[in-house]
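Input.
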Amino acid sequence: MNDTADEAVLALPDRTLLVLDDDLPFLHRLARAMERRGFEVTEAETVSAGLAAVNASPPAFAVVDMRLEDGNGLDVISKLQEVRPDARAIILTGYGNIATAVTAVKLGAVDYLAKPADADEVFAALMATGEDKASPPENPMSADRVRWEHIQRVYELCDRNVSETARRLNMHRRTLQRILAKRAPR
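Output.
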């Protein structure tokens, strides 16, 4: 990170940031990286902890994972926008799709990043204004990876029922079984 980015954060009147993710190693790494960039970070690993942090002291910025053990991170985004409409929040997810991206933006998120996102991407998304959008990622997920993630998400939502997942994806059951048996594409 450069000095102008440091100065941009230090010039902010409120540098509070909520980082909400249930992947603890990622949560701690991102929190430390954002602290080094000048933010005052609060960490949370559940929707209930995130909502409690927002109610206690609404942050100026938030980085929220979409799928958490006890619910959906969109609930935290919605609450944050309710109590602090000027807050800038972004959604992080490994299960990205257009419908959830649209919902996140409608609820007040300023950006939607696919995991794995690094601290520089998160910082750029938080600091981007309406005129200058964050630059596209250097290594975005491949189309095969996006397809695989979507299939995995539907499979999990169908309680790992192959027949039901195949029906919902309009795919032959054996084809789905072959896809599920393979490793995730890069």
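The chain has two domains: 3-127, 143-181.
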